[in-house]
Amino acid sequence: MPSRRPYCRAGLTAGIDLVSAMGFHLSRPDARRFNELRPIQFIRGYTQNAPGSVLIRTGRTVVLCTASWEAGVPEWKKGKGSGWVTAEYDMLPASTGQRRRRNRTDGRTQEIQRLIGRSLRSVVDLDVLGENSILLDCDVIQADGGTRTAAITGAYVALCDCARTAVRNRWLPRSPVTDAVAAVSVGRVNGKAVLDLDYAEDVAAEVDMNVVMTGSGHFVEVQGTGEKTTFARRDLDRLVDLAARGIRRLLDLQQKALRKRV
Questions:
Q1: Nearest residue to 53 via CA among 95, 96, 94, 9
Q2: How many domains is the chain partitioned into structurally?
Q3: Is residue 162 in a domain?
Q4: Is 6 part of a structural domain of the chain?
Q5: How does pLDDT run along the chain (262 residues), one tens digit per residue?
Q6: 99 exposed, middle or buried (CB, 10 Å; 0-12, 13-18, 19+)?
Q7: 55 lies in a domain?
């Protein structure tokens, strides 16, 4: 559960009410409206050793995102004068109700870490990086739905702090970060369009989606699945519009967190 203690350092929390013209008014199991995000908290500088580190809480989901600097690039990138941004994702053994084995790189894990890497590369000028790499590690401490979207949203903040460190230490002449990026889940649960699904809603969803967008309003990825039924074009449009509203709020919260002194 999110801590009830005063938030420390660059912690930022918000109980977010996205008021829209879509007429959502009924309550969900956690008393949110259908167009409401879970409470969000960013704690920057959560660890001391990584150039960028952020603990992100979204409801009961908690993810530690670190950004590490590494001189050099993968073998296939050498000699091209540009850098690389990549990501790894994992869930701690006790992050869910049933213990997971460590170092279990299954198909889901590979899919998610590739998604995180693609999302962050979409807002980085790799040429500015030179032949250097930024490695993002996203470790789920506690899972209650939306771990991949929380990882993307938190990893962006860690990336920005890593870029700032690189400029401050004169590893780079300027920041390679060109835009912001954030992600959120949406779905149709009991016939209703719902923003930011927790685990119980995700399991019950007839349709679920993960949407990744940049600060300039461009889509990086839209992952949508009819889990229990098909969905119409109007359902797709409504869910994407709902996600875009949520992501705009997440982008605002990221920038507020980045303005805090650490």
A1: 9
A2: 1
A3: yes
A4: no
A5: 333 333 233 444 444 343 333 334 456 878 899 999 999 999 999 999 999 999 999 999 999 999 999 999 999 999 999 999 999 999 998 898 888 877 767 788 999 999 999 999 999 999 999 999 999 999 999 999 999 999 999 999 999 999 999 999 999 999 999 999 999 999 999 999 999 999 999 999 999 999 999 999 999 999 999 988 899 999 999 999 999 999 999 999 999 999 998 8
A6: exposed
A7: yes
